[in-house]
Amino acid sequence: xxxxxxxxxxxxxxxxxxxxxxxxxxxxxxxxxxxxxxxxxxxxxxxxxxxxxxxxxxxxxxxxxxxxxxxxxxxxxxxxxxxxxxxxxxxxxxxxxxxxxxxxxxxxxxxxxxxxxxxxxxxxxxxxxxxxxxxxxxxxxxxxxxxxxxxxxxxxxxxxxxxxxxxxxxxxxxxxxxxxxxxxxxxxxxxxxxxxxxxxxxxxxxxxxxxxxxxxxxxxxxxxxxxxxxxxxxxxxxxxxxxxxxxxxxxxxxxxxxxxxxxxxxxxxxxxxxxxxxxxxxxxxxxxxxxxxxxxxx
Length: 298
Description:
Order of helices and strands: HHEHEEEHHHHHH
Number of domains: 2
Structural class: alpha+beta
Distance between the termini: 9 Å
CATH superfamily of the largest domain: Metalloproteases ("zincins"), catalytic domain
Helix content: 55-70%
Strand content: 5-15%
Number of helices: 9
Number of strands: 4
């Protein structure tokens, strides 16, 4: 599969995963509505709640992420190579130059955030700036600019909000069932009511797990896409491949300011501790060995 076909394939897979995510939200909202006696009320509640949270995160989510990560604006005099690299590659990518931030951390890593190319930022650790060669740093930055150009930053913010909505709806559904039974309400009982309760309980219990798995799958697909598109921007797949090798062999991969909420944003999981196929479904990123193999094959 050539580079352009690889990018198209990843886009189709990501859209399918997002559709599954929306389906889980819709089903949970409808199940909640059926239980309270009005399917339209449940669906409308899920839609309104999702919309409110999306809007809040749309306009303030990136600022919160940067603050949580202890990122500070990059000083051109102190980090001239980083600033020049971002500016040059932004021109190559055909997007406005994003704001540039730095995290004081010896680990090699970077991430991008924002709501669109006009309101975006790129953040690199001091470890990446100091320990990567010129072409390797260019590969990492090009990867992050690809996330911006492809609106991955907006999509992943959207996915995080949907996970919150699904978890909240699940909790409300379970709490409402407990409350109604305590109050002696038996309207939903009977053969049909029992089936609805069972289905609703399964959805409420499993939906958060399903949502988390879909989120991780979306994140992994977007990393493959950003690797591919970043190679187009830098015109040097080997630069990113070599950077990933250094990240893979880093003896101190942990980014101190990272957490589970922001781990999926980084070029490689800053909290990685698990190995093996059993944990593959729960990883925020695809296997780094596979990413390197694909890049070296371009």
